[in-house]
Design goal:
The protein has about 220 residues and is mainly beta. The chain has a domain of about 140 residues: Jelly Rolls (Sandwich). Helix content is about 10%, strand content about 40%. The protein is built from two helices and 18 strands. Strands 5-6-7-14-9-12 form a six-stranded antiparallel beta sheet, with helices on one face. α1 packs antiparallel against α2. The chain starts with a strand and ends with a strand. It holds the Pfam family Cupin_2. This is Cupin type-2 domain-containing protein. Keywords: Signal.
């Protein structure tokens, strides 16, 4: 309903009542609005994204909902958590840091991305990320084109199986157009003098180890 109608030349401007924004009723599925989608907070299928305990993500939009243009995933990144150095052949990966801070390797560069940052990882380049010490890191992952959800659907079953089979996880990655590299090679330590606590994925044990950029290590 219009509160006031103003004549401006030959046009009419309708000033609407100011109303509070009301959330839709709670839904466990995206809401179809004239062919578009509205996804409420908390809606989406959760899955294990890495071999790290509690490394879960949530599908917000899958390819079958976006005309295969993109896949949108989000989740909390726990301290110490991060994938192997890897390379995508089929999709670009864009990261939006919602909160906290995340450390990245993109090609030969290592850097930290604070909240509000966007990192674009082009297909065909080695990349990785890790939460070094941020207790509230939360990230959205935008994959374009879609298809990465099929990889996660399959590999999440491997990540939740004990004992964890790293070779099987790597084979699934290869199946979906990804190359996985040695976990500790070029680990996220931009300065050899810095120390980083990293996780041994094979056994889920915390290790206090210094890793330099060339992959050598020394215990302390």
């Amino acid at each position: 309903m219009c509160h006031v109608i103003l004549a401006v030349g030959f046009s009419f401007v309708c000033l609407m009542h100011s109303v509070s924004c009301v959330m839709a009723l709670d839904q466990d599925q995206p809401i179809n609005i004239n062919g578009s989608l509205f996804i409420e907070p908390g809606v989406g299928k959760s899955f294990r994204a890495l071999a790290f305990p509690n490394a879960t993500r949530t599908f917000k939009l899958r390819g079958n909902q976006t005309g295969n243009l993109f896949t949108l995933i989000e989740g909390k990144i726990l301290i110490g958590e991060g994938p192997k150095l890897h390379l995508h052949h089929n999709e670009d990966e864009t990261f939006r840091i919602i909160s906290g801070q995340v450390q990245f390797i993109i090609g030969n560069e290592t850097f930290c991305a604070p909240a509000g940052s966007v990192v674009y990882g082009k297909r065909g380049i080695q990349m990785s990320f890790r939460n070094v010490d941020s207790p509230d890191a939360y990230v959205q992952f935008f994959f374009s084109p879609s298809g990465i959800e099929n990889y996660f659907d399959e590999v999440s079953a491997v990540y939740t199986t004990v004992p964890y089979d790293d070779n099987k996880a790597n084979a699934i990655a290869n199946k979906y157009g990804m190359d996985m590299f040695d976990l500790f090679r070029r680990i996220l330590v931009p300065d050899p003098a810095q120390r980083a606590r990293v996780i041994d994925i094979q056994s889920h044990r915390w290790m206090s180890t210094i890793y330099s950029q060339d992959g050598t290590q020394s215990n302390h």
